[in-house]
Amino acid sequence: MQKIEKIDPNFFVNQQIPEDYCFYDPRQAPFSLYGLVPNDQGTWCRLPLDFLPRCSEGVRYLAGNLAGACVRFSTDSPGLCVLWQLRQEGNMPHFTACGQSGLELFEESDGGTRQIKNFIPAMADGKGCRKKQSGLAPLPGGMRHYALYLPLYNGLEELMLGFGPGARVEAGRVPAVSDPIVFYGSSITQGGCASKAGSCYPTILARRLDAAQINLGFSGNAKGEESMAEYISGLRMSAFVFDYDHNAPDVQHLAATHEPFFRVIRQKQPDLPVILVSRPDFDGNPEQSKQRRDVILRTYANAKAAGDRNVYFVDGQQFFGPRDRDLCTVDGTHPNDIGFLRMADGLETILRTALKLS
């Protein structure tokens, strides 16, 4: 049996590492990390290490999945070589390897973003991704700004970025909305099952709005815990997207946690725009989905009745639209790129209004 890359060279994903490239650890200056919390152990994590003991076992593990995190830098190098070592093999049957374990590079400017390369991890005999990966992206030259998005459903043991000989490497561009939009929610918020790192709805929105982001999606484990509400309430942010409906075990749990969580946020940050979102996977159990939506609507109505002018509600049933809803997910629950695109479309106008963007 021939390997596919020998039949078609376009499928060869692990390229030769240039011998004359200089490599840097992006956790050091001049690089900027977004969506991660630096720590003295040098681990890649979305939460502070001293907060993890207050979290469930699932959240502690998933904090090492790097959804929404990116490295920003500027360079005039003719190419970028990326070496990364994964924390685990990515082998979900309904999730692409490059969505779980790949990286995606964008050029950033005041006019928007442009994809440069999707770094696709190599597979090991179809059983998962090899833990050590490499990829090379030609760059257009001249001093330009870049953002490298990290794996959605995997962690990193190591990441090194290589640049051509004599290339300048400087700090990256700061997004126009520099205080991040914080997203809290389920596997959908974390990015399951986007085809690549930049295609989950929080990252689509961050790129469209030229905003920093913090993705606190925890697959199956965002359950509206009080400790998480307290942590999020202390973050500096421009807006909060509250989207954990799908992970609440039942309607009663959602009713017991949703409004108390919102009140913790609102008490600490009285003027923060908060967007309340109900589940997009409405069709699997419409009656229960309606009951869940009613819980979230009650939180919204109570806030409005109390005079809150910075709270918004988005009905998740409307995200996928009236036609071709089956094309929006891979399994009836987790969005594919079409589903995530429609979610971003449904939230963009609300966020532009909340953030007073044109």
What does this structure look like?
This protein is α/β, with parallel strands linked by helices and 358 residues long. The chain folds into 2 domains: 15-171, Sandwich (Jelly Rolls); 177-355, 3-Layer(aba) Sandwich (Rossmann fold). The chain is built from 9 helices and 15 strands. Strands 2, 3, 5, 6, 8 and 10 form a 6-stranded antiparallel beta sheet that branches. Strands 12-11-13-14-15 form a 5-stranded parallel beta sheet, with helices on both faces. It has a 4-stranded antiparallel beta sheet with strand order 1-9-4-7, with no helix packed on it. Strand 13 (239-243), helix 7 (251-268) and strand 14 form a beta-alpha-beta unit. Helix 5 (201-209) packs across helix 9, helix 6 (226-233) runs parallel beside helix 7 (251-268) and helix 7 (251-268) packs parallel to helix 8. It is globular, with a radius of gyration of 20 Å. The termini are far apart. The mean pLDDT is 94.
Which key terms come to mind for this protein?
2 domains, 26% helix, alpha/beta, five-stranded parallel β-sheet, 358 residues, Rossmann fold, Jelly Rolls, 9 helices, six-stranded antiparallel β-sheet, 15 strands
Molecular shape: globular
Low-confidence blocks of residues: none
Radius of gyration: 20 Å
Order of helices and strands: HEEHEEHEEEEEEEHHEHEHEHEH
What is the count of helical runs?
9
- Cα distance, first to last residue? 56 Å
Number of domains: 2
Please identify which CATH superfamily of the largest domain we are dealing with: SGNH hydrolase
CATH topology of the largest domain: Rossmann fold
Helical fraction? 25-40%
- Label the structural class: alpha/beta
CATH class of the largest domain, anyone?
Answer: Alpha Beta
The chain-level mean pLDDT equals: 94
Strand content: 15-25%
Structure summary, number of beta strands: 15
Main beta-sheet annotation? 6 strands, antiparallel
CATH architectural type of the largest domain: 3-Layer(aba) Sandwich
